[in-house]
Amino acid sequence: MKEQIIVVFRYVDAYGFVKECFFGFIHVVDTAALTLKKGLYSLLSQHCLDIQNIQWQGYDGASNMRGMWNGLQVLNLNDCLYAYYIHCFAHCLQLALVKVSKQVVPINGFFLKLLLVIKTTYSSCKSNEQLKVVNANEIARLIDLEELETGSGLNQIDTLQRPVETCWSSHFRLVSSLLRMFSSTVEVLLNIIDDAANGEHQVEAESAHDGLTSFEFVFILHLEKETMEITDKLCQVLQNQSQDILNAMHLLSSTKALIQKFRDDGWDGLLTIVISFCENHCIVILDMNACYVGRRGRACNQQDNITIEHHYRVDIFYAAIDSQLQKLNHRFNEDAMELLRLSSALEPREALKSFRSSDLCLLVKNFYL
Q: Closest Cα partner for 33 from 73, 88, 61, 87?
């Protein structure tokens, strides 16, 4: 029950090898940026380490750490002019994507329903085993109909896992597995409803089933699958132990370009896939040209006469993708990208083939006067 700072040093030794080691804990009375700065400086001074020798600082994305005006990184930068703050790329990406899911109301509601589906489906060992059996039978049926390819490693029995907020890849795996196991999950929820021993379990199972089999849920399920598939490769690359900075930044730019392309050209294809999926799973398809009526008692007061297509296209499809792009641009700012790009000119591998005198001149001019 104590507030602590964990200090880790990263440095280059006399032989040119990068070292990273745990240095110590610092107990602090609160997490105000000034308090954290005093604690950090106190620890360094105890070991006769000069503050001016700090060349880089990295923290999480909390406002007291990364704040542009009063954050710890700015306070340190005032004393150490070249101690630039770089937030972990993988963590930046997770925060950007998770934050987006909470800002767009329908997307946030989708993830709440998704958690209810997982909770209800795995409410007991019986339902868990039932899901595996139903899924295995469904795979066998599709193989008999020659709708699934067969081969080594294919058609494994899936499970639905609870997503981890700080690991966006877990969200992608969950969404992908739910799409593969959709029929099996619906069947298990119906069995839970029929076998429910009390009203509470029955109500939960009915709510999960109704949410799962709604057009909006299926639409957002496919939307999230498409966008997560674009960002998943970037997620994996940014979590590599050995990181090629230039490759990571190139992949980041490519990812943003692909997301933008999906926004510009992906609506028609996505809607076609969703409608086909709904037809195959007997889910009611909405009339896109019908008037959209808001929920929660807003129908009588609704001023805008908009169609259902407008709601799904503008309020969900565009809103989700635009928020994602905005967050990615905010989290991965141009200054940090430029600093890392120019610093890569110092890469010693392959006999200094990456050495570029023009980039080193720009590095000095822009960052190390």
A: 73
Burial (CB count within 10 angstroms: exposed 0-12, middle 13-18, buried 19+), residue 321: buried
Q: How far apart are CA 100 and CA 316, in angstroms?
A: 12
CA 140 to chain centre: 33
Q: Which residues contact 44 (CB under 8 A, 6 or more apart)?
A: 51
CA angle 55, 59, 65 (to 5 degrees): 105
- Amino acid 299 reads A
CA dihedral for 15, 19, 368, 331, sign (positive or negative): positive
- Rounded CA separation 332/132 (Å): 41
- How many Å apart are CA 56 and CA 86, to the nearest integer? 8
Helix, strand, coil percent values for the chain (each to nearest 5):
65, 10, 30
Residues of the chain with pLDDT under 50: 152-155
Distance CA 38, CA 219 (A): 51
Of 88, 32, 33, whose CA–CA distance to 60 is shortest?
88
* Inter-residue contact 39 to 26 (CB < 8 Å): yes
Lookup: tokens for 152: 């080594």
192-225 tens-digit pLDDT: 888 866 666 788 889 999 999 999 999 999 999 9
Predicted local distance difference test score (pLDDT) of residue 352: 63
Short-list 31, 80, 67, CA closest to 367: 80
Instruction: Report helix, strand or coil for 167.
Output: strand
